Amino acid sequence: MLTEYLFQAAFLLSLSVSSVDLVHAQIHISEGKSLPELGLKQDNVRINGCAIQCRVTTEDPARGFQPDTGRIEFHECVGMSLTASPFIPHGILA
Length: 94
Known about the structure:
This protein is of the alpha+beta class. It folds into 2 domains: 1-55, no CATH class; 56-94, no CATH class. It is 28% helix and 9% strand. Strand 1 and strand 2 form a beta hairpin.
């Protein structure tokens, strides 16, 4: 599960700054194609901007930092190309 999550994060970040579709590349590599055949030589990859990804989790220190539930008091995404989980409504104040 963690590997899948990390790949999802890497996929979105790499796609946003380099236009390299890792899923597409992974499928073609599994079919036997090489990175150069896919145009993925290091010299061909251009970085355009930067990307940051974060994840909010809750833990209970009284229970040895076991996962816990919580409530998001305020959430707002502002700026260019920001995405958030569809389960967190924009600008919610509880």
